[in-house]
Specification:
Number of strands: 6
Order of helices and strands: EHEHEHEHEHEHHHHH
Number of domains: 2
Distance between the termini: 42 Å
Strand order of the largest sheet: 2-1-3-4-5-6
Largest sheet: 6 strands, parallel
Strand content: 5-15%
Oligomer: single chain
Structural class: alpha/beta
Shape: globular
Helix content: 40-55%
CATH class of the largest domain: Alpha Beta
CATH architecture of the largest domain: 3-Layer(aba) Sandwich
CATH topology of the largest domain: Rossmann fold
Low-confidence stretches: 139-151
Length: 218
């Protein structure tokens, strides 16, 4: 039996332990590493090159969508299974754009997790039924996504999405600049561009946007 190496990325200890228990109850499956933040997930995926990363969508420092984007670059052959607490049409569209091929809800039964890992181990997609419905509705009859209405957040760059998360977590422009290794002026320029693109005018509105789109947890 081929060994399946899985990295679990979730900032809650209890959740990681539960996932590890389910994974390692399956013969031949092992948890090769664990991560507590989105950035740590990318670094550990690049180092250990797991077959699959189980990735919580609401991760500190870097949310699951951006972490998935980084993992895809760092370890292209690694499949990603997104775990989400809440259902979101926009989230499905975002993870599909990144190249994620697995999505389940945290409320789904253990068997769905096992089924998802089995599918992904053979590089086949696994999405819950609601996610599959969104995938189908996202394409018109010609097979393009032209009919999908653009969402303001889709216009944000990857760096801007990082900054949305950091600001929403309560960091100042100076702290954002230090964290990302950019100047305070650049951080403030990004912040102004984000506010303009999202058509919001305060940090509290930005936090609501981040919670609504599962960039941070409420």
């Amino acid at each position: 039996m081929k060994e399946l190496r899985i990295l679990i990325a979730d900032d809650h200890d209890l959740m990681r332990r539960g996932l590890k228990s389910v994974v390692e109850s399956h013969p031949g499956w092992i948890v090769c590493d664990e991560a507590h933040t989105g950035r740590e997930a990318i670094a550990k995926a690049e180092k250990s090159k797991p077959d699959i990363v189980i990735l919580d969508i609401s991760m500190p420092e870097l949310n699951g969508v951006e972490a998935a984007r980084g993992i895809r670059k760092a370890s292209p052959n690694t499949e990603i299974l997104i775990l989400s607490l809440h259902y979101s049409d926009q989230l499905i569209r975002e993870i599909l754009d990144v190249g994620v091929r697995g999505y389940i809800m945290k409320s789904d039964p253990d068997q769905d997790l096992i089924n998802a890992l089995e599918k992904l181990s053979n590089h086949r997609p696994f999405f819950t039924s609601k996610a599959a419905e969104v995938m189908l509705s996202s394409f018109n009859h010609s097979g393009s996504r032209a009919a999908v209405k653009e969402i303001p957040g889709d216009r944000l760059t990857a760096r801007e999405r990082e900054i949305v998360q950091l600001l929403s977590e309560g960091r100042s422009s100076k702290e954002v600049a230090s964290f990302l290794g950019i100047s305070v002026k650049t951080a403030e320029t990004h912040r102004a561009n984000i506010m303009r693109k999202l058509e919001i005018h305060s940090v509290s509105e930005l936090v609501r946007y981040a919670v609504r789109n599962q960039i941070i947890e409420a």
